[in-house]
Amino acid sequence: MPDYLSRSPVDDAEEDPDETTHLISKSTQTDILYNNENSPIIASVETRAMKFRNKTLHDISNTTELTSDSLNTSTEENCTTSFSIEELIQAQQNDNYAKNILNNIKKYKNYIVKYNLLIRRLNHPAPYVPQGDLRRTILQIYHDTAANGAHFGRNKTLHKIKQRYFWPSMYKDIENYIKSCILCTQFNPHRQKTPAMDFHGPITPTSQRGNKYIISLTDVLSKFAVTKAVRDNTAQTAVQFLKEDITSKFGTPRCILTDNGTHFTSTLMNELIKQIGATHLYSTLHHSQTNGQVERYNSTMNAKIAALSNLNKTNWDDQLSFVTFNYNASIHSSTKQIPF
């Protein structure tokens, strides 16, 4: 489908009168068979600038005529109201942000004016779209319609739109529009990862406060970790940690992944998970890699705590909060993001 706004404008080119020539050719015998009037055929050669200007208005007027006819379907959500280049120019002239730039165009090096259209200088120069109905129409076209959007995600939708249009809050607007799409919410698969909980220990030596274990919960998606030094690894301790240190501070998780230890398979733990409405998932028996996020964090934590503890290593629980904080505040090797 032709789309001026999907192509980079050519450089300004002045018309050269010498390039506009007229060619006169006589009719051939084949022409005479279909045309009794033996009149000459006259064709003119267009310069690049003339061709670009003539094609621009024709292409732009057809750019947004995106209806369900393109796929021979009558689905109502695929019918989108189009807008013309004249409407875009008029919207720019009524927009305070655009008017300020148009009136002071020499001060704004990132913009140019071409055929009365305010255009942003980018790798793919694109016209500025004022806030309002035109932006909503563009979002509908490049996300909702079958021919141009097909309800793909933020990055794909952003790539399509920024090749053709520009406005300052484009990234955020596209993200919010897709988040509010009911069909996407209903049919897209949820890629949310399950937080994993585990005990680590017994740790030797026992700390001065009598703590021998560390219980932790790691968000598998963000790698964010919550830890606590505890005296034992009983079901009561696990339930207390889940209630006081997780649910009351961060909210109720949808799922929790644990190993098959009795402290996690107990009736007390199952009752709590049932009360908060979560789903309890168990890692494969004798295969701790299923719960490997916590296992990897535990190995990292051991070395850091040992480096910060006193000579007797009896204050390791005092260092636990510092180690956890710095872990959460540092870039993770797999996500290249900070868990916080």
UniProtKB/TrEMBL annotation:
SUPFAM superfamilies: Ribonuclease H-like
Organism (species): Rotaria sordida
InterPro entries: Integrase_cat-core, Integrase_H2C2, Retrovirus_Pol_polyprotein, RNaseH-like_sf, RNaseH_sf
Domain Integrase catalytic intervals: 185-340
Top-level taxon of origin: Eukaryota
Name this polypeptide is given: Integrase catalytic domain-containing protein
Region annotated Disordered, chain positions: 1-22
Biological process annotations from GO: DNA integration
A molecular function (GO) term: nucleic acid binding
